[in-house]
Amino acid sequence: KNEVEQSPQNLTAQEGEFITINCSYSVGISALHWLQQHPGGGIVSLFMLSSGKKKHGRLIATINIQEKHSSLHITASHPRDSAVYICAAPYSGGGADGLTFGKGTHLIIQP
Amino acid sequence: DTGVSQNPRHKITKRGQNVTFRCDPISEHNRLYWYRQTLGQGPEFLTYFQNEAQLEKSRLLSDRFSAERPKGSFSTLEIQRTEQGDSAMYLCASSLLTGETQYFGPGTRLLVL
After folding, report:
1. What's the rounded Cα separation, in Å, for the pair A37 and A102?
2. Distance from CA of A42 to the nearest CA of B (A)
3. B45, A44: Cβ pair inside 8 Å?
4. Nearest CA to A89 among A6, A29, A45?
5. Is the CB of residue A102 less than 8 Å away from at least one CB of chain B?
6. What sign does the dihedral A50-A55-A56-A61 (CA atoms) show?
7. A57-109, pLDDT tens digit by residue?
8. Which residues on chain B are in Cβ contact (under 8 Å) with A7?
9. Chain A residues near residue B93 by CB distance under 8 angstroms
10. What is the C-alpha separation between B15 and A109, in angstroms, rounded?
């Protein structure tokens, strides 16, 4: 079973700051997922990436397959970015199965 | 709204009772996944289907849990003889193909008294 570790668990920052959330996993994979969960809300997929970097608006995700490490960055953070950010990797490695999740990073952006 | 629906959204039951949850995935999605999330934790994988075939089950899926996807469309998750430790959010997700983005439903929150 893949083990996924995230850091930090909690992060409070001021509006406008550059945010970085880190994720590492134990078993080689074909793709890693970043997801967002608002309090009391559902889970939304942000990125699925297998190499390099992806960007969507102010969100950037990078992955280093050799290092088994990924980062999620938020530029010009805003209070509406406050949420739990979760990384997830295939449960048994590869890509053909369910996901195993990190415990999430609880992000609070203060105005 | 991701297009994945789950019913009921909330369920309160007494210990020892059986409960059944339903998930309706996005219609053309072949893959359907069940996860469980307890308070303050990330979701945990339970099982997944490729069409009607159940392809993998985690060790969290004890004998009291059973999942079906009889026609390759909607899926049900049944918990028999519920225990207080079963209290959690049960999440369903679907994807078009292997390794594709998973779309999550809103979840069914179960409370076992």
Report:
1. 13
2. 5
3. no
4. A29
5. yes
6. positive
7. 999 999 998 899 999 999 999 999 999 999 998 877 555 578 889 999 999 99
8. none
9. 43
10. 40
